[in-house]
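Think of the structure tokens as a kind of shorthand, similar to the way a musician reads notation: each symbol stands for something richer, in this case the local conformation of the backbone. In the example below we present two proteins back to back. Begin with the first one, reading the sequence and then the tokens, and try to describe in your own words what changes along the chain.
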Amino acid sequence: MGTPAGFRQRQEVMDAPRLARTLSRIAHEIAERHPQLSAVALVGIRTRGVPLARRLARLVKGASGLEPQIGALDITLYRDDTTAIAPNPVMRGTHIPFSIDGRTVVLVDDVLYTGRTVRAALDALIDFGRPARIELAVLVDRGHRELPIRADYAGRTLATRHDEIVQVLLSEEDGEDRVLLLGKAREPTRRAASPRGKGKARGPRRRR
């Protein structure tokens, strides 16, 4: 994933080691909160929520000895802003090869922003059954919520502006692990050209 046109890197929020430590902490929190991990499933929201869910599942297993079930959720048809994102949205498909009835389902995503992605994920998930509980784990919570949604597990809470972008890069999708804060690139200021004949005042000409 390249830098979007018109933006530049403003801050490196996480490098690879810090991202790994953050996921490890979230995994330990999940394991501590849910001793009965056989009744817990991690469902990643496509795209980057899926590799994050897989990593978290491995880390939870390392912390507890039990690996929760893993699923992938495509929310494309449930969004209320599909046409604003792309004229022809790409469907990647949902894969939940187990029953979610009576389970605790932890939705996993990379960035929590307005809450509309999570709302769409809740609608999509309910079509597959009735979980006992739904929780949310995100790598970055950047604020600016438009809906009453919050994360149960947040790797980093980051103060941002509306015109900034939080870009999450993962080795599975992008070849590297980093989290960047991008801001709009400033256009170079152009000096106004001086009107012809109105440059610097010239001194008297020296006679030779």
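Once you have a description of the first chain, move to the second and do the same.
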Amino acid sequence: MNISRFKVVLFVFLYALGANIHAAPSVVFETSQGSFTVELYPEKAPKTVANFLQYVNDGFYENTIFHRVINRFMAQGGGFERDMSEKNTRAPIVNESNNGLLNEPGTIAMARTMDPDSATAQFFINLADNQFLNYTSPDPEQIGYCVFGKVTSGMEVVQKIGVTPTTFVGRNADVPVKPIIIKSVKLLAEVAKEGAKEVPAEATK
């Protein structure tokens, strides 16, 4: 395990234990449509949050796109580049959908194939109350999609993304006509530190 991955796993582990960490971690998405903040829930989905934060820490999401957007349903991204080439990912993770969190408007969940335990890097943000995506049983067809966070600010940006015109690109449907680029995804604490560095010090008299 490399140092950066160890730090992410340790952070989530300590949070889950409540070890002197009182606020849930948040990440800031900077996109070509604006920025929004997502609060993560490691106490509800520890493996999912650890996996997501590792991709964040690695800069994996930089210059990826929201490649599938369906108004009044969801906006999916985090796996394709502007030319619609899919990025290589780490191994898939276990589905933690049975955590009590629901696919409600503004929540973020892991995208996957028909295999319940196939999620890697892609995620989607719910634009509606998508109850049919919730966990109802361990049956593969009813296990649902794992929610692991929620948009806490900038939901108007997400809603703007949700109404973007879409088209077909090859076999891919619902692709935004104008690429919606994810410029970066960073921990809110890091963004705050970067902002502090940019504030000029008061001139000495």
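Compare your description with these statements about the second chain. The two ends are 50 Å apart (CA to CA).
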